[in-house]
Amino acid sequence: MTAPPSPSPPPHALVRDHTIYSCVMGSRAFGLATEDSDTDVRGVFLAPTPLFWRFAKPPTHVEGPADEHFSWELERFCDLALRANPNILECLHSPLPLHVDARGEELLSLRSAFLSRQVHTTFVGYADSQRRKIDADVRQYGAPRWKHAMHLLRLLTSCLDLLRTGELSVGVGDAREPLLAVKRGEVPWPEIEERLNRLVEAASLAVLTSPLPPLPDHARVEDFLIRTRRASALAHEEPR
Fold first, then answer.
1. What is the spatial distance between Cα 153 and Cα 171, in angstroms, rounded to a whole number?
2. How much is the pTM?
């Protein structure tokens, strides 16, 4: 009789043993950290190709093993990046990398391939969903959650800069203190509303003349994924 296949490695083992890229995200990457800020770690792992030959596929993402740690399997990460997911694109541009192997280096070299004018739709769309939540807080409590308002301003400013320059900058630079003033509740909500509206309007104009291409370079990213999967298949024996 054929022996049953060995069990798949647990999700945390995939992160531990097969991470190709990890970085710090959140307030520390944005330059908005304070003494009580968490350290958010995001990563990309490459599940060995033979694991995909089973009925039970590897996970597309894994929470942990540490607190505030979240990782995506490479294919899922690339798919989300090609869709201009704001969180994923910012991970690729984090100024605080923690681990980068050769495959991670190639992934980072593809940063421009993921960028396109689609960022206008996804960044502004995400901001709009967050804005509705903030508006609900204002109606119910008379004020927004100031931290959320701060990050909404940061996101829309980043989007506008990206559309105008073609480059994504994660750090807020000189805007740190004005943004932290928002977080502390020192800026009236009507003023923040006006700033948000101006940013959305400016982004709608910037996308019309943006140096970004209309669509991401899907073929270039897919070529990387195929080559990486093939190399993994050759490096790992099929599980039995």
1. 13
2. 0.91
